[in-house]
Amino acid sequence: MVKELFPIAPGPAEDARRSLPLYRDIAWDRERNAPRWQDGEPVFAEGLEAVLTWAVNAVGTARYRWEQFSPDYGCSLAALTGQPYGEDTKLAEAERYVREALMVSPYITGVRVSGTAFSGGRFSMDLKLETIYGEVSFDV
């Protein structure tokens, strides 16, 4: 019989790590915005780097625009263009769209947003992803 009121149990990230296969994806060169190649073959990334690649591409892909992607993949940020919303509303909606795009992945357990801004018609946002492999930051 357990004598503790709250016995120690694995958390959601530990359960997910046990049940999900190691995530693999094509490695991505973010400066060139293109996949990495070596000797004519694609380079693969695993774990945290692969999840980051997926996240960057998911946020950068317009949702519902491309037939080859499921309706769950991509981000709806383009829907804010030309809308008569105030800046606060646009920032809140942009944050929501990015969270929705990223939380589709079972490898991502949380998204923290900071530094959102519209400047000269450009949108920027700093993100910290909590994944089953650890945390990683990137900007949109």
Automatic annotation (TrEMBL):
The lineage of its organism: Bacteria, Bacillati, Bacillota, Clostridia, Eubacteriales. This is DUF2634 domain-containing protein. It comes from Lawsonibacter faecis. It comes from the Bacteria. It holds the Pfam family Sheath_initiator. InterPro entries: Sheath_initiator.
